[in-house]
Design brief:
It comes from Brevibacterium ammoniilyticum. This protein has about 325 residues and is α+β, with helices and mostly antiparallel strands. Helices cover about 40% and strands about 20% of the residues. The protein has helices at about 5-25, 30-40, 45-50, 55-75, 100-110, 115-125, 130-140, 145-155, 180-190, 295-305, 305-325; strands spanning about 30, 95, 170-175, 200-205, 215-220, 240-250, 250-260, 265-275, 280-290.
């Protein structure tokens, strides 16, 4: 993956994760503590290093909350940490980066730096306020320990390839979910729970857990956004048919979705491989629009729209990753 793609992908995924964490405590500005929380569930090397040191999302949330209470007490303000809240980022708007977090991201993308999650973590460790060092101390770690482990892992491993697209209508991405593989499997393999993580599906009729390839259900396309805003859906795209193309419990699930009222429309394919990882489950997601027409005109149109298609696939992969992760946070 190029430096630009690394940077863009990392900034996009960390922005979603950090602002989701900010939304849990009723904030609209994501600061360095939210960025740190986002890194604990990153699928990249930085997240793997933090989790290998025993820094889980739950432990980090507790440490961040305790740090804020102590800071307020130092100002003579007695307050309890906010209770655990629900992520509402996808249902609301008005979020932005705080000055400190924006500076960290800017530095991670500076000259000679790659802009991936490891670069962001290194800049966060060097951030001068001392907040991250204090949080790490509460977690039984230190900036030096995290930096040393990051150095060791990066020396031993090749740089991950990350998401890629060999075709204008397909792409892949890695993701980390802070939950055991069996829990993640139950989410991804249950047709009735597709609306919980697939942003295009609003409901599934009589959905149950998938047990064999060939099972299929009638579904309806989502007609409202999480914030209640209506989505305009053309009549021929209202109905979907979701089918299990492949299932290997609890290692692989592949879903296909077609539009029975739009015979010439591309169908969608989502293949998700699962494997246990420290602190949760690692996912490899393949997403594709499957052509139903191979006419010369359609092929030429595909070439013309290739850049747009790549961008849309990238966005949809990001939405899938966010939806699956959010279900367990």
């Amino acid at each position: 993956m190029s430096r630009f793609t690394d940077s863009a992908s990392t900034s996009y995924s960390l922005s979603i994760l950090a602002m989701e964490e900010a939304s849990r405590v009723g904030q609209r500005e994501a600061d360095i503590d939210h960025l740190f929380l986002a890194l604990t569930v990153s699928e990249q090397t930085a997240g793997q290093v933090l989790r290998s040191l025993g820094i889980s999302i739950d432990a980090a949330r507790e440490a961040v909350a305790s740090q804020h209470v102590e800071q307020l007490a130092g100002l003579g303000i007695q307050a309890e940490a906010p209770g655990p809240g629900r992520i509402v980022f996808h249902e609301t708007d008005g979020y932005e980066w705080g000055e400190r977090a924006a500076k960290v991201l800017q530095n991670a993308n500076g000259s000679g730096k790659r802009g991936d999650a490891a670069a962001v973590l290194r800049e966060l460790l060097a951030e001068p306020s001392g907040m991250i060092e204090s949080i790490l101390k509460r977690l039984g770690a230190s900036s030096e320990a995290v930096r040393a482990e990051l150095d060791r892992v990066e020396r031993l491993s090749d740089r991950p390839s990350g998401s890629k697209s060999a075709d204008a209508l397909s792409g892949t991405a890695a993701a980390f979910v802070p939950a055991p593989i069996d829990d993640v499997w139950r989410l991804l393999s249950d047709a009735s729970r597709l609306p919980d993580w697939d942003p295009t599906i609003g409901s599934v009729e009589n959905g149950i857990a998938a047990s064999s390839a060939g099972q299929s259900w009638a579904a309806r396309t989502r007609s409202t956004r999480p914030d209640g805003t209506p989505i305009t859906v053309k009549p021929r795209f209202v109905n979907q048919r979701v089918e299990v193309a492949e299932v290997d419990e609890p290692r692989l699930i592949e879903w296909r979705a077609a539009y029975p009222d739009a015979a010439r429309a591309n169908s969608r394919r989502m293949s998700i491989a699962l494997e246990p990882a420290a602190g949760g489950t690692q996912l490899h997601i393949e997403y594709a629009w499957v052509r139903t027409s191979t006419s010369r005109v359609r092929r030429l149109l595909g070439l013309v729209l290739r850049p747009l298609n790549r961008f849309l696939i990238w966005i949809q992969l990001g939405q899938l990753r966010a939806g699956i992760s959010r279900a367990f946070r």
